[in-house]
Each structure stands twice: as C-alpha cells, then as structure tokens.
Automatic annotation (TrEMBL):
<dbReference type="InterPro" id="IPR036291">
    <property type="entry name" value="NAD(P)-bd_dom_sf"/>
</dbReference>
<dbReference type="InterPro" id="IPR011032">
    <property type="entry name" value="GroES-like_sf"/>
</dbReference>
<dbReference type="GO" id="GO:0035925">
    <property type="term" value="F:mRNA 3'-UTR AU-rich region binding"/>
</dbReference>
<dbReference type="InterPro" id="IPR020843">
    <property type="entry name" value="ER"/>
</dbReference>
<dbReference type="InterPro" id="IPR013154">
    <property type="entry name" value="ADH-like_N"/>
</dbReference>
<protein>
    <submittedName>
        <fullName>Quinone oxidoreductase</fullName>
    </submittedName>
</protein>
<dbReference type="GO" id="GO:0005829">
    <property type="term" value="C:cytosol"/>
</dbReference>
<keyword id="KW-0521">NADP</keyword>
<dbReference type="InterPro" id="IPR002364">
    <property type="entry name" value="Quin_OxRdtase/zeta-crystal_CS"/>
</dbReference>
<dbReference type="Pfam" id="PF00107">
    <property type="entry name" value="ADH_zinc_N"/>
</dbReference>
<dbReference type="InterPro" id="IPR013149">
    <property type="entry name" value="ADH-like_C"/>
</dbReference>
<dbReference type="GO" id="GO:0008270">
    <property type="term" value="F:zinc ion binding"/>
</dbReference>
<dbReference type="GO" id="GO:0003960">
    <property type="term" value="F:quinone reductase (NADPH) activity"/>
</dbReference>
<dbReference type="GO" id="GO:0070402">
    <property type="term" value="F:NADPH binding"/>
</dbReference>
<dbReference type="InterPro" id="IPR047618">
    <property type="entry name" value="QOR-like"/>
</dbReference>
<keyword id="KW-0560">Oxidoreductase</keyword>
<dbReference type="Pfam" id="PF08240">
    <property type="entry name" value="ADH_N"/>
</dbReference>
Length: 320
C-alpha cells in the first residue's frame, strides 16, 4: 500500500507492506483490482486538505469481495464492487471498507472503468443534474474539457441537449475535447472570455463548471449570462482567491457554489442512485469514458507528478 507520514510533494509517498485485518461489523474485505487517481488525492497529499498522519491515499477503487463482516447482507463473496469518495486509503491491494459505501458493478462495466471513472462519473452526474440542471438548448462552459471529469461531463451534457463550450490548455487536448464539445477554446492561445462572448453573441453562458480554480475564476465570472451560475468544484491550479460577494451582483446577479460529491451522496439511497445513473449512461453509450494512462501501484508518485503537470488525458489508473 501507499502511505504518507507527512504532507508534501510526491516524494512523501512510500510503498509499504502491512498485515491484513479481519472485517468488523458492517465491513467488507476487498481484494482490489484497480485504483483510480484523482486531483483530490494530490490535495490530501500536499495538505491542502489536511490528513491525520500517518495516512493512506486515494478514494476510489474496484475490487472483489473477499470476506464479510457481521451484519453485511447486501453483498456476497465474489461480488464485484466499487467505491468513490469517503475515507482515504484506496492505494492498496487489499482494503477494509464499510459495506454501505460500496456499490455493485454491473456486468457490462469493466473493473478499469469502475475504478478509474466512478468518482468522475458521479461528479458529472451531480454537477449536470442536481447542482445546476442542464436543459436542452442551454449553452454551458466546461473548463479542462479533455480531463477525466471534463470528458465524461461534456459527453453527458450534449446527450442532455446542451451546447457545450470546452476549454483546454494545448492543441493536443483541443483535438481530444473536440470529440465531446461543440466549441473548443485553447486558453493558452486565445482569450477564453472573448471567445465565449463571440460564440454566444454577447449573451454569455448559463453555467460555468470550473475545476481549475485560481487561473480561470475571474474569467469564468465574465463568461456568465445574467443570473448565471458559477460552479467551482476543484482547484487544479490552486484555490479560488477570496472575493467580495458584491462582485456577483456587479457581474449580473450571479450565483456561486462550491459543491462536493460527499454532500450529494449523503444517504445510501443517494449514493446508489448516483452510481447507477452513471453506470447506466456508460452501458447505454451516452458516455464513453477513457482511461488515458495507468501506472503500477508502486509508481503512484509518478502518477501524481504527471497529474500536477497536466500531462494526463482522461482518467488515471493504478494497477494492483
């Protein structure tokens, strides 16, 4: 397993061996088959989201049920299950998990897709269907459209009937995003605010989904139509700067929200329904998620380095 004993850069990540424990009441022992790597893992490692030390890392994986604790009736030995969110510790070959945090993986969904995209898929689900309900004909802006969440969300938004504008940071990523977006803007070579205003004939977009953070925040507000919503769901370039609420009034009586998946899957029913909706979208072909790169579990530090440098495309996987 991968553990850290202090916050810091990727060098603090250590590959360690620990004895297995028996599942306690309400727990399941998983033999993990694949593990997802997400930006939130880098926030945990760096201390942006502090952890008690020592700590594991990772919040997403797929595996097979190896043993059941007392009182677990929803699953049986051999079931394929996945999880996304909750306590850290996914960077491991075996893991004890609370049964109520697991979801069954349908037969049509591979271990790799379940492990590498469930967190992103459930994030896309709540962003598009609950934080701001995307409707037919709306124009939306999604930053980092070639990234793991971006690829899934942009495909899904088009299926919902939206006109999707995506931003990227390179020509290579523009080529990827063009498969999922109606319009693609390379913000390294174009002013994305000006381009959004051109595309929308000056009206602006109904919603901006921004997982980039500091680099795009102010421009994102300027892309919104009056009464539009700014959805800040990540900090890939650093935290959003402090701002006066009055700026929202000045720029069009805007709405601002900072949602997290945990608050949209608070109950067992919400978790199961959110995962099921994503798996349904994949199985029906509405969404075709991409595993862009994979690393051995012992090379998790390299995965973090590439993620920080934005050298990844689609979703990132650790092989067990």
């Amino acid at each position: 397993m991968i553990r850290i004993h202090s916050h810091g850069n990727s060098s603090v990540m250590q590959f360690e061996t620990h004895a297995l424990a028996e599942p306690q009441k309400g727990e399941v022992l998983l033999q993990q088959t694949a593990i997802g790597v997400n930006y939130i893992d880098t926030y945990h490692r760096s201390g942006l989201y502090p952890l008690a030390m020592p700590s594991g890392l990772g919040v997403e994986a797929c595996g097979v049920v190896e043993a059941l604790g007392e009182g677990v009736t929803e699953f049986k030995l051999g079931d394929r299950v996945a999880y996304a969110g909750g306590a850290v510790g996914a960077y491991a070959s075996y893991r004890l998990m609370p049964a109520d945090k697991l979801v069954l993986v349908p037969a049509k969904i591979s271990d790799e897709i379940a492990a590498g995209t469930l967190l992103r898929g459930m994030t896309a689900q709540y962003l598009l269907k609950r934080t701001f309900r995307v409707h037919v004909g709306q124009v939306i802006l999604f930053h980092a459209a070639a990234g793991g969440v971006g690829q899934i969300a942009c495909q899904w938004a088009r299926e919902l009937g939206a006109i999707v504008i995506g931003t990227v940071g390179s020509d290579e990523k523009a080529a990827i995003a063009s498969q999922y977006c109606d319009h693609v803007i390379n913000y390294k070579t174009s002013n994305f605010v000006e381009r959004v205003r051109e595309i929308t004939a000056g009206k602006g977009v109904a919603v901006v989904y921004d997982g980039v953070g500091a680099d795009t925040f102010e421009g994102s507000l300027d892309c919104l139509a009056p009464r539009g919503m700014m959805v800040s769901f990540g900090n890939a370039s650093g935290p959003v700067p402090a701002f006066e609420p009055a700026i929202l009034a000045q720029k069009g009586s805007l709405f601002f929200t900072r949602p997290t998946l945990g608050h949209y899957t608070l109950t067992r029913a919400e978790l199961v329904a959110t995962a099921a909706d994503y798996f349904h979208a994949v199985s029906r072909g509405f969404v075709k998620p991409v595993i862009g790169q994979s690393y051995a579990l012992k090379d998790a530090a390299k995965a973090h380095q590439d993620l920080a440098l934005r050298n990844t495309q689609g979703s990132t996987l650790l092989r067990v």
